[in-house]
Amino acid sequence: MPQGVMVIAEQRDGEIRKVSYEVVSEGKRLADKLGQKVIAVLAGQNIKAKAATLGHYGADKIIVADDARLANYTPDAYASVIAQVVKANDPAILLLGASVQGKDLAARLSARLGAGMAQDCTAFSIDNGRLNAVRPIYAGKAYAKVTFSDNYPHIATARPNVMPMNPPDASKAAEIADAGVALDDSALKTKVADVVRDAAGKVDLTEADKIVSGGRGLKGPEGFKVLEDLAAVMGASVGASRSAVDAGWRAHTDQVGQTGKVVSPNLYIACGISGAIQHLAGMSTSKVVVAINKDADAPIFQKADYGVVDDLFKVVPALTEEVKKLA
Amino acid sequence: MKIIVCIKQVPDTEAQIKIAPGGKSIVKDDIKWVMNPYDEFGVEEALRIKEKLGGEVTVVGLGPKRVTESLRTALAMGADKAILISDPAAEESDALAIAKALAAAIKGVQPDLIFTGQRGVDDDMGIVGAALAESLGIPHFSVITKVEMAPDGKSVKCHKPVEGQTLVFESPLPAVITTQKGLNEPRYASLPGIMKAKKKPLEEKTLAALGLNPSEFGEGARKLKIVEIAPPPARKAGKIVQGDSPESKAKELAKLLHEEAKAI
After folding, report:
1. CB of A157 less than 8 A from some CB of B
2. Could you report the per-residue pLDDT of B205-225, keeping only the tens digit for each?
3. Most CB contacts within 10 A, which of A159, A223, A287, B56?
4. One CATH from 3.50.50.60, 3.40.50.1480, 3.40.220.10, 3.40.50.620 for A5-187
């Protein structure tokens, strides 16, 4: 019978990503309910020294796959290595972060292992010894509760910024083991030809703690300047509605909504966004929502914890000054 | 070049989603069905490659008869042929089963390149592309914003933005590529295109005709089972921040966010 929770951690340039600590924390909570153990797996190059921190968040054992061919993510090398580790350890539950990499790897693993997978989950529970998951569908217009067949492992990815992180306990030392799996060069068809880095310090919307987002009300690309200023003093990322992106004011990568990114920051400030259903769907799991809009009837106010009915070009710069005073 | 584009028909993104009695599916009447927006980028990219390197574009869909409309839309945009996998036994299948059916339909075509949207905007799973590649034993690249074909048509470079950077993969063909917004601007079907599409071949196949066992499909065969579908949790009513000027409202908002919401 498959046993235990396995968490596939993720590193970028040798640093373990925050979402991996969230998933290890959640894995620990689930394993405790089952009375079983958590194994974390980390793949990369020269990452063994970094792996121990996964133990501080709840991993009982850490398996490291260290290989030059794992330095950057490729679906074929990673799926091959992780599938071998999964088969050797036979976990009941396999968890990943719902990052771009985690979602991709989970999909390929699900097919390779012939096991069901639930993508981008916002809650987990154990019911009769079996994993249950809640996941937004239709970009959050509905929520599906799902469970799994008797095919193991039960695979799921967890939405970033949703699972609470355990307080790290540096005194907890997990056993660290080598994966000891083979990578067959002839099976690796893909190589990474290039890695192009974005502007330094830019946090992706899906992982941002705070987002300042703009829509039609910004009136043009130059209107986003006031949002950039507010974002800079708050340490926020800047997002945009579909209409702002389709108008060419912002890059596609900035779009929040059903055909863009689904985000769940602690604070989402929507400026000059009326709140089309497809936009609301993409930010509905944000914890605190602020709407700033001239139109008191804009649907965004229905979803906002705090609403300001006024001209954003006056409110936002004033808010920027107020936030500066708090710092 | 033989290029396949797998398309899904989904509710329009403006559609309101209502839960059907029984709580296991959504109300499907009165919904405007459209081609999955992410699949449109796949159709467009396939057509651009065909225009450059020559070849044939086949679109493949799975689902009830109404999916024919979306396949005709792709034909009107310029695709050459369509295959509809239509079988009541396939309804309510999960992504793994759907990928298996698509793989069976595609195998006969022996494509060089397969496109599909990075995810359906209905189930939001993003699994079919990878599962299809696994079934066919070929590489896949997901959420791709730029495709560069080698001039000889034998290999491809795919740009994949991940948080903070873009990975550029290089791979021999055949391969599966799942398409993301930003890849291209899909064309509209022209009137002559719409007229021509009516005469283009659209083949319908059952699971049995593809050599598949219908008992491996449908709700009973799902590896991911739906327990319940519910409306999203309601947000509690918000506060309208009061003040006699934009500045005073900003001040009050900053105070609320700092002291009450503890968000800044």
Report:
1. no
2. 999 999 999 999 999 999 999
3. A159
4. 3.40.50.620
Can you say how many angstroms the Cα of residue A229 is from the centroid of all Cα atoms in its chain? 25
A122 and chain B in contact, CB less than 8 A: no
Distance in angstroms (rounded) separating the CA atoms of residues A303 and A274: 11
Q: Do domains A5-187 and A205-326 have the same CATH topology?
A: yes
Q: Where are the domains of chain A?
A: 5-187, 205-326
A205-326 CATH choice from 1.20.1250.20, 3.60.40.10, 3.40.50.1220, 3.20.190.10: 3.40.50.1220
Class of domain B2-221: alpha beta
Question: How confident is the model over B177-188, as pLDDT tens digits?
Answer: 999 999 999 999
Reduced to 3 DSSP states, what percent helix, strand and coil does chain B have, rounded to the nearest 5?
Answer: 30, 30, 40
Which residues does chain A have within 8 Å of residue B149's beta carbon, measured at their own beta carbons? Answer: none
Give how far B241 is from chain A: nearest CA, Å: 5
Q: Which residues of B touch A149 (CB under 8 A)?
A: 222-225
> What's the pTM?
0.94
**Tens digit of each residue's pLDDT (9 = 90 or more) over A189-222:** 999 999 998 776 678 899 899 999 999 999 999 9
The B residues from 180 to 199 touching A (CB cutoff 8 Å) are 180-182
Question: What count of other Cβ atoms lies within 10 Å of the Cβ of residue B215?
Answer: 10
CA distance to partner chain A, nearest, from residue B156 (Å): 10
What would the pLDDT profile of B220-229 be if each residue is shown by its tens digit? 999 999 999 9
Contact indicator for A288, A305 with CB cutoff of 8 Å: yes
> Which of B98, B158, B163, B173 best probes binding to A when mutated, by most A CB atoms within 10 angstroms?
B163
Which of 195-254 (A) contact B at CB < 8 A?
Answer: 195-198, 202-204, 206-207, 210, 234, 251-253
User: How many A/B residue pairs have CB atoms within 8 Å?
Assistant: 273
Element (H, E) at A124: strand A123-127
ipTM over 0.90: yes
